[in-house]
Amino acid sequence: QVKLVQSGGGLVQAGGSLRLSCAASGRTFSNYAVGWFRQAPGKEREFVGTIIWNIGSTYYADSVKGRFTISRDNAKNTVYLQMNSLKPDDTAVYSCAARVTPSSWFHDRVNDYNYWGLGTQVTVSS
């Protein structure tokens, strides 16, 4: 079982950048996929992107492609979500999630993931 510890987030102006972190506690991310999701007020939680830890491959939602980047730091056992060119529509609570994945398939559904971080608020002002 893995525990996810999130950090980062906050308030930024439109066009600015933020970086979120998701660290594994209790075990490594080896053989896991780590996804990022967000939920805006009154909306359902939506997929942002994911990384397959073992091979470093990433996959993004169309709404963030080209602006957001997911990366990993093996030494720190941490996944990052770098968010650039932020827009007011990006305002949401962002959560990281993890699941064991024996394959290279990407998982983009909420129910695909077993472990969740507590979430962190990102607010983009216009």
Summarize the structure.
The chain is an all-beta fold and 126 residues long. It has no helices and eleven strands. The termini are far apart.
Q: Which percent band covers the strand fraction?
A: over 45%
Helix amount? under 10%
Please state the structural category.
mainly beta
Gyration radius from CA atoms, angstroms: 13 Å
Q: In total, how many beta strands?
A: 11
Shape: globular
Topology of this structure?
Blueprint lengths: L2 E6 L1 E4 L4 E8 L6 E8 L6 E7 L4 E4 L7 E6 L4 E6 L8 E9 L14 E2 L3 E6 L1
Parallel strand pairs: 2-11
Antiparallel strand pairs: 1-3, 3-8, 4-5, 4-9, 5-6, 7-8, 9-10, 9-11
Question: Can you walk me through this structure?
Answer:
- This protein has strands at residues 3-8, 10-13, 18-25, 32-39, 46-52, 57-60, 68-73, 78-83, 92-100, 115-116, 120-125.
- The protein is built from no helices and eleven strands.
- The strands form two sheets. Strands 2, 4, 5, 6, 9, 10 and 11 form a seven-stranded mixed beta sheet that branches.
